[in-house]
Design a protein that fits this description.
With 843 residues, the chain is of the alpha/beta class. The chain has 34 helices and 22 strands. It has a 9-stranded mixed β-sheet, sandwiched between helices. Helix 7 crosses helix 34 and helix 22 crosses helix 33. The structure holds 5-bromo-1-(beta-D-glucopyranosyl)pyrimidine-2,4(1H,3H)-dione.
């Protein structure tokens, strides 16, 4: 190395090694610089949107410093990394999260205020990226926040959909889907890495040949090659320099591809083919916990997995190059890959292919590595959600993978036969291949066989997973199955969403609770303090007032701010039983209209808020939305209800709306048929924000009840252990219908809420006929009403109610994703935190 070179290096280091200043004046200069030079706008007459863009760029500069330093540091150390592979990341807005995690919220607010802007207004200019459906995608984003906050070297990998989750509008009382083109204003949070692109092959054929040692080898050739383009988004931790990376892939045509088709003289055909390439990452499939089995979806999955594994492999091999002692067999010491449900499970045969066909390892060596790299999280036991791909489809699209899957299965079934000779029933249940016409590949079996650990997401879910979904696998590998109960990040769901409550917490115990939720526990005793209860109620009222104002401003609806705010906000699904909620509302409406004025005076006023999207092809879910809207119209217009009952369906539920609504709830509903909601995560957010739950003994509700005390939850309904027997008996001994349910359904059927022409309401109600009440809606109705009445009664005891809320909210530490991720790190990934401390820092 020459002296010149060293001098240049030193100068470069000097020029770049200080962090940007964060005093108010410097922030202002950075904002104005971005307005002038990044956005190329004049300095006067700027709208909020321009200032949003400028603020985002200014914050991004500060993220980038920490991000590149963190990445460089972890590469230097050669630490083991976690890769969280997910087809969905429901990140929500970034600006508020970034300034808060950087500790710069106050400084930016002040910098903006002095030049005539309001940070909150600026923040609401951000278009929310909705690259996920619901709980599964949001969980992935909570995990990324915690991984960064706890200094774990971890990357998220996913797809940069051009169109995210559709925008839901309600037109004529029905859901209508509109495309969500979220990139119209560009995306200041991402960096396009033009130097990170990988070819991804589809279709083609497999060539068999002998290598030098005479072993039979396979090469996948021909077909089409698409390019995967990386886009990186920094994920800042809270109160740490560590900033992780979320890498999302976008598809584009490859040059080879272009030339071949154009040279063939088929201009139109070639352009169409180009469009087809880009279409791979164009749209998020809007199905939540249901599988559509569409070909383009398999292409998406493979495209994403192939690019991701090439990237992980390249990084790993670079690190092998750095230390002479590491070899490819050490991959599991450096790489942990978590499969977020089976959506990325094609990664298992893909890694096998790389190890066999590219690295020339033996099958045994490759399998050993692969199995020690992958772990799989299951998020549902609903049969309709189990991913299956037809053998002919995989054979056409991914011929080599089909071979590898068959080989994995063959070797696996030999093991099964050794354990259980002549047990064909067990063999066919455990096989990756379902012997149907056409044959199907069961992705969940592949994921279990190819992973070292399989986890469920709440205690009851893991139990059911073991007993109903994978009982044979459990016998074979009892230690493979573990539980890791879900959690949510207190940064977004408390600190950002609920400043009123957060400042109470910080005032009581200091700011440390934000990444150590256990510190809230001592506040429980304050439930006995009348003055504290009053402050608590004031915070809740602030949040309720914000919703009242929002409802009036955006929907023109006036509601009573003192009413009990009751919310059910989540994807619309039969198993989540929004229908039970609506029937309860109709019952309440009937009670109000039939009550005397004196009786009305005794009733507790309620605002019933529902929100959530229905998959576009899910008829029952769409009918449900129709019914809610119709009920809302009639009830809200009825003078008898006035202040006593309002029913509101809020369109286009998303992360930002959740941040507004959740802190304002008194009661929220998590009322799935027992055994069917794997965990639920909304339930955790509501209780953390000082709301109480009306819920079934399902998913994480059970563990929440344990943590906060059962007396603090309004539980009802059949237990999971009773469901099967109830279903069995109902066909020949249908239970008597509760007269109140009879009245409610009669009102709906008779047209009190209109008569849609295709009999949509009849369809909904026929499904709860006591003979075939699959989701036990009629069955659970009486106990549901009892729980609701109990909530009403308790709500009137204001002081006691507040005490319940305080006790509950301050007992929620175990539902922080910080606890969840520590468990993943210890039990599954075997990774350690790697805090990065900057060598030089001038603030
Ligand atoms: N979940 Br599978 C989804 O949101 N989407 C899916 O495709 C599948 C599961 C949810 C579960 O329904 C919910 O109970 C759970 O809390 C969440 O995943 C995160 O584990």
């Amino acid at each position: 190395m020459g002296a010149d070179h060293l001098a240049h290096k030193e100068l470069l280091w000097k020029l770049s090694s200080t962090y940007l200043p964060n005093d108010v004046g410097s922030l202002q200069r950075s904002l104005v610089r971005h307005v002038e030079y990044t956005l190329a706008r004049r300095r006067y007459k700027l709208d909020d949107n321009t200032f949003y863009q400028a603020t985002a760029h200014s914050v991004r500069d500060r993220l980038i410093e920490r991000w590149t330093d963190t990445q460089q540091y972890s590469a230097k150390v050669g630490a083991k990394k976690v890769y969280y592979l997910s087809l969905e990341f429901l990140i929500g807005r970034s600006l508020g999260n970034a300034v808060s995690n950087l500790g710069l919220r106050g400084a930016y607010a002040e910098a903006l205020r002095q030049i005539g802007y309001n940070l909150e207004d600026i923040m609401s200019e951000e278009k929310e990226p909705a690259l996920g459906n619901g709980g599964l995608g949001r969980l992935a984003s909570c995990f990324l926040d915690t991984l960064a906050t706890q200094n774990y070297p971890a990357w998220g990998y996913g797809i940069r959909y051009k169109y995210g989750m559709f925008e839901q509008r309600i037109l004529n009382g029905q859901q209508v889907e509109f495309p969500d083109y979220w990139l119209t204003d560009g995306n200041p949070w991402e960096v396009e890495r033009l130097d990170v692109q990988y070819p991804v092959r589809l279709f083609g054929h497999v060539r068999e040949f002998k290598d030098q040692e005479g072993n039979t080898r396979y090469a996948w050739q021909g077909g089409e090659v698409v390019m995967a383009q990386a886009y990186d988004t920094p994920i800042p931790g809270y109160g740490t320099y560590n900033t992780n990376n979320m890498r999302l892939w976008s598809s584009k045509p490859s040059h080879e591809f272009d030339l071949a088709s154009f040279n063939a003289g088929n201009y139109y055909g070639a352009v169409e083919a180009k469009e087809r390439c880009e279409s791979i990452t164009s749209v998020l499939y809007p199905n939540d916990a249901t599988d559509e089995g569409k070909r383009l979806r398999l292409k998406q999955q493979y495209f994403f997995v192939s690019a991701t594994l090439q990237d992980i492999f390249r990084r790993f091999k670079k690190s092998v190059g750095r230390t002479a002692t590491t070899k490819i067999q050490d991959m599991p010491k450096k790489v942990a890959i978590q499969l977020n449900d089976t959506h990325p499970a094609i990664a298992i045969p893909e890694l096998m292919r790389l190890l066999l066909d590219v690295e020339y390892l033996s099958w045994e060596e490759a399998w050993e590595i692969s199995r020690n790299v992958f772990a799989y999280t299951n998020h549902t036991i609903l049969p309709e959600a189990m991913e299956k791909w037809s053998v002919p489809m995989i054979t056409e699209l991914l011929p080599r993978h089909m071979q590898i899957i068959y080989e994995i299965n063959h070797r696996f079934l030999l093991e099964v036969q050794k354990l259980w000779p002549n047990d064909d029933t067990r063999l066919s249940a455990m096989s990756i291949i379902e012997e149907s016409t056409p044959k199907m590949v069961r992705m969940s079996n592949l994921a279990v066989i190819g992973s070292h650990t399989v986890n469920g997401v709440a205690m009851i879910h893991t139990k059911l997973l073991k007993s109903t979904l994978f009982p044979d696998f459990l016998l074979m590998w009892p230690e493979k199955f573990i539980n890791v109960t879900n959690g949510v990040t207190p940064r977004r769901w408390l600190l950002q969403a609920n400043p009123a409550l957060s400042s109470i917490y910080t005032g009581m115990v200091g700011p440390g609770w934000v990444n150590d939720l256990k510190r809230l526990e001592p506040i429980k005793t304050m439930a006995q303090d009348a003055l504290f209860r009053q402050r608590w109620r004031a915070a809740k009222q602030t949040n309720k007032n914000a919703v009242v104002d929002w409802l009036y401003k955006t929907m023109g609806i006036q509601v009573n701010p003192n009413a009990l705010f009751d919310m059910q906000v989540k994807r619309i699904h039969e198993y989540k039983r929004q229908l039970l909620n609506v029937l309860g509302i109709v019952h309440r409406y009937a009670e109000i209209t039939q009550a005397t004025p004196e009786q009305r005076n005794q009733m507790v006023p309620r605002v019933c808020i529902m929100a959530g999207k229905a998959a576009p092809g899910y008829v029952m879910a769409k009918n449900l939305i129709m019914l809610v809207c119709a009920v809302s119209e009639v009830v809200n217009a009825d003078a008898a209800c006035r202040d006593l009952l309002k029913v509101i369906f809020i369109p286009n539920f998303n992360v930002s709306l959740a941040e507004l609504l959740i802190p304002a709830s008194d009661v929220s509903q998590h009322i799935s048929t027992a055994g069917l909601e794997a965990s639920g995560t909304g339930n955790m957010k509501f209780v953390m924000n000082g709301g109480l739950i009306v819920g079934t003994m399902d998913g994480a509700n059970i563990e929440i009840a344990q943590a906060i005390g059962e007396h603090n939850m309004f539980t009802f309904g059949a237990k999971a252990s009773e469901v099967a027997a109830i279903r069995r008996t109902m066909s020949h001994h249908p239970p008597k219908i509760d007269p109140r349910l009879q009245r409610a359904t009669q009102m709906i059927r008779s047209g009190v809420f209109g008569k849609p022409k295709d009999g949509e309401y009849h369809q909904l109600l026929d499904a709860i006929d006591p003979h075939k009440d699959v989701y036990l809606t009629a069955q659970d109705f009486p106990s549901y009403l009892r729980a609701m009445d109990e909530a009403d009664a308790q709500f009137q005891l204001e002081e006691k109610w507040t005490a319940k809320c305080i006790e509950s909210a301050c007992s929620m530490w175990m539902f922080s994703s910080d606890r969840t991720i520590r468990e993943y790190a210890a039990k599954i990934w075997n990774v350690e935190p790697l805090p990065f401390r900057p060598p030089k820092h001038q603030n």
